[in-house]
Amino acid sequence: MFRSLARLAAGLSLMIANAALAQGFEAQVAPPRFEETAQPGTTFRNVLEITNGSTRSARFLLKTADWQLAPDGSVQFSDALAPGSCRPWVGIEAPEIQVAPNGRRRYRFEVAVPADAADGQCRFAIMIEGEPQKQADGSLQVTGRIGIIVYLTIGKGAPVLSYLGTKVEAVQGRDLPVISIRNTGNAHARLAGFLDAIDANGAKVTLTPSSDPILPGSTRAIALIPIGDGPNAPEPKLSFPLRLKGTLESPPLRLDLDDSASK
After folding, report:
1. How far is it, in rounded angstroms, from Cα 61 to Cα 234?
2. Taking the model in full, what pTM does it have?
3. Is the distance from CB of 64 to CB of 8 less than 8 angstroms?
4. Which residue of 24, 90, 155, 180 is most buried, as measured by CB atoms within 10 A?
């Protein structure tokens, strides 16, 4: 059993991606996140895959971090142990690895859940950094970072969701209905499903929620995105007000909606 815990670097500002090209270094990491379950007194183990897209051998530094969502939905990582952090349970295979040119490396990690762990969720990130490059002034500059988030639900941990209302907001340049969802449970949720909408002109539109995580103890604005009739169909334009009806799910939870959205 390996129990190598890496030291953490300060001042992390990172992106999360599935097989994403990080700025400044050619690394791809999959999967983009882990959403798994474990019981108290057990050890959860899994593997991520790191690909070196460069024609040169690359050295990567790995560590864990705590994280939180900023009000704008971006992820903020921290080297400091957050209150109630489960990172002391986490073991990583090695603090640094070498990957051959255009090569792949499977990288193991584990979470040893204490026998007395309460129901809830262990959340942390595994950080992959490029080897720091020496600058002309002698300083070291990190060449790129990728963060892979792990959601490990412990025991009977589960979200508890409530619908607070709908409003219209500008989302990436267009007006969309946005629902407000409160999570009073002890694990995160992601909404899925479809809502039927009728717009101001009587046209029928199908909406689907964004897959943004709704963390325990948080209220999250979830955009409802219109989808076309086929895979290549353009996104339908919405004429407000909209009448919304249908069911959204975050298994095993179901949210029945019957509401309107107007500017």
Report:
1. 42
2. 0.85
3. yes
4. 90
